[in-house]
Each structure stands twice: as C-alpha cells, then as structure tokens.
Here is the input.
Amino acid sequence: MKSRTAPVTALPGRDTWYEIDQDVLAWNFRSVREFLDRTNPDTRVAMAAVVKADAYGMGLIPVSRVFLDEGADLLAVACLSEAARLRRTFSDAVIMIMGYTPDRLLTAAADLSITVTLFEERQAALLSQWSERTGRTARVQIKLDTGMNRLGCDDGDAGVSTVERIARMPGVAADGLFSHLALESEASDERQFSRLTRFAERVRGRGVRLPSLHLCDSIGMVRYPAFHLDIVRPGAILYGAPPLGSRTLSAIRTPFAFKTRIARIRTLAAGEGVGYDFSWRAPAAGATLATLPVGYADGFRRAFSNRARVIVRGVAAPVVGLVCMDQCTVDVSSVPGVSVGDEVLLFGRSGDDEIPIADAAAWAGTNRNEILAGVGRRVPRVYHRGGATTEILDEMDAEVTGES
Here is the structure.
C-alpha cells in the first residue's frame, strides 16, 4: 500500500506543510488489530490508541477520529489538556490520562468523565469527595511501578494495601492496574511482567476487583505476545514506526510526509560559504544550492546540518550549512531541471520517494518519536483520504492564502 495523494497547491502562511494520509493510519490500526486477534485467538485484547503529544504530531482530533472509527476501545493521552480537547469532540469515547494529574485537576477530569491514573490513596480520597458531592462515579486506573522508577505505587506490602484502599474508596471505580516496560533487556522485561501479574494476584486475593491489566506499548506488544494481558497501548507503530529490526507487522506503512518548496536557487563559486559560520563551502567545481523555507522551529532539526538529505525530483540532495530557525539550504547540483517552486520531501513517504523516519532520527542522534512529535505548530497539517485533500489545519490561524 503506497500513499498516493493529490498535490497541495494553496496553503496559509508559506510553502511548508505536513501531509497525513488517513487511509494509511486506518490501515496501520487494522494491521495491529489483526495481529492481536491472530496472536490471541481465544480472547479479545482491547486496544488503547495512544494519541498523546498531539497524536505524535499528526493532529489529535483528526487522528483520533480515524482510530475511533476503526474500533479503538479507548484513547490514551498524557495530560488533562489533551483529554479535555478530545472530550469536546468525542462525547462518548473512553479517554484515559496515562500520566500525572495534579490534585487540583482531578475533579476537573472527573467532571469530564475522563479516566485518570492514580498511585496514591490521597488522590482517590479527593475523587471520593467529588463523588459524594455529585453523585457520580470517578473512573481510575492504578499505576504500579515495576522498575522504571517514575510514577506508580510500590509493589511491596504497602503498595498492595494502597491499591486495596483505592479500589474500595466510595465513588471510585478502579478499571485496571497497569505498568510500563523499560525495554532494557528481555530478562528485565520478564521481571517487570512478573512483578505486575504477581502483584495483581495479591490484590485480587484480598477480594479486590481489577477488571484489566496492561503493560505493553508498541514494542512490548510486538516483542512479547505473552504480555498482552487485557489491553495493549500501541502508539508509535500506528504512526508508521514499528520496532526497529522486527519483521513482525511488516504491513505497517508510513502515513506522513513533511514537505516544503524551493524558495530560491543560487550558484556558488568554489570556496563560497553558506549560512551561519560558513560550516560548508562549495567544492572546486562550485555548487548549486536551493534555499528551503523550513528550519528547526518547524521540526527540521538543527542536528540535520551537514548530515541529512532531502528528495527533490526523485533525487537525494544533501543538507549543507547550518539549519537555521526558519530556513535551510540543500545542494541540488545533481538534480536535473531543478527550479524554484519544486516540491521537496524532508522526511516521510510520498509516492515512491521516502526518507525513513529512522534515518532522520539517526541524523539527529535521537529516537523516531522525538522527530515525529517535534514537527512545529506553525506547520499546517494537510489530511488526505482516498487520494483527495479532506482538511487543512493551521494552528497559527493564518488568514493569508496568497490567492488572487
């Protein structure tokens, strides 16, 4: 399945944009669903589609709509602001905050029927008081620290008692117990799985009902089918970033294309420099450079300087000089017929052209998720379905279209 989309001809602001193929997002979701059904033939494992960080930079509302339409059992985010945005659009969706919610905001989340993550009795007591005032039930998930040493209650005797008290708190419904894999090694991951399941057995042994257990993100889901439990929390894999080196779920496709257009072309003589500090100079034969209206404020990282490549007219062109906040330059000496206005693929996939997100992460010395989440707010998101543009979202609310 290749992403084939109509060309983008009119944008607010400037000619830099981020294309999201909703058909590919749906394909990826279905591929994960089929994998779960195949590896768990005797039970249905629920899918919590992780849409935190603005759906990994691809747009919280349009992406969540795709996943809900495809049958996501719940949407998982990191904080209340993300959850509240979802609730304004999706009145019936099950929405879970996986991260920390400050005490002062717990009741606001409950007002919106959002499931919050708890790990201390004090948090549950606040929600119990809210329940007494409103006559409603607060839904929660309980986080267990199985070794990452971030959020979560301890898995010793005190932790068992804490979870029991939370689960028995009047007006508070504990929908599940969960943890998160550190993915340090197979042995370490197995210890975390064991700590979670054994802890759950101890809690249930006290007569406490825990409807669900969950542990796996995208990598854990692919690597350890035996760890699937009741819910999995796929994130990166839905956005075209399956576990590196794994052949499982090879059907996953790239749904995004970060693009711009050439703003200027200039010929440099031997020894001429470009950009700040002249970190790159033209070779003896000279060079033809193209200026692109995209920079690190847009998510085209400064670390790409003199390392990354882009694609122009199907030809790879290296980034030369330092990437600036708002623009950068590429060497197009080897691109036949290059001209101002030519479309440039920065990373992602467009037709037969691809700059893998793994390459972009390697150039920046980081992981793929940071690259995806780093595409800037001033870059319009352009959504495609069935090969046609369905929506353009401009976070900066630009009103100038350039039409005449």
Residues 186-204 form the longest helix (19 residues). The CA atoms of residues 100 and 117 lie 7 Å apart. The chain has eleven helices and 21 strands.
